[in-house]
Amino acid sequence: MPHKFHPGHMARLESEERRRRQPPERLLAAIGVRPGWRLVDIGCGPGFYTLPAATLVQPGGRVLALDIEDAMLARVRERAAAAGVDNVETHRSEESHLPLPDGAVDAALVANVLHECTDRSAFLAEVRRVLVPGGRIAVVEWRKESMETGPPLAERMAEDDVRQALVDAGFTVTAALYGDTTGSTHFGLLADRP
User: How many domains does the chain have?
Assistant: First the structure.
């Protein structure tokens, strides 16, 4: 069974080092986040992507921050309040049950989460369900290479495996992201819900 990130290590997710390696604004720009969008950040952690996305969807947009850990959601609320951000909603989620209605969002961000899922097919089916037709999913994962940081190599997913999981879930993969967009330790895939 894959391990889940422990909230006791939350500071790593908010570090300046991570911001230098993976500037969230670059990934969000590559996804095409724009004003008016409803975006769900699944496995939001302390809001590394949530808060920058909340700025980009203004005016009129909302970011729904989902996590299985209450401590992560509390930190998102604390950071949003401190920054004066009022267009973020937090919701406790289960791995394969997202607390959103069908077609609730324009885009879904799944960063460093898919490798932790016990049932990836069920998880991606849920993401597909909450997206509007034509909606977009962005999956960011650790490269399947040995390195000092991140999950154990055995738990990481190869890019081809992520791509196949998306296709099997009914998505159309449209782009791969690397380098300045995802950082040297990660890759990303963009896909659309037909």
Answer: 1
- With respect to residue 1, please indicate whether it lies within any of the assigned structural domains: no
Tokens of 168: 């099997």
State pLDDT tens for residues 146-187.
998 888 899 999 999 999 999 999 999 999 999 888 888 999
CATH number, domain with residue 79: 3.40.50.150
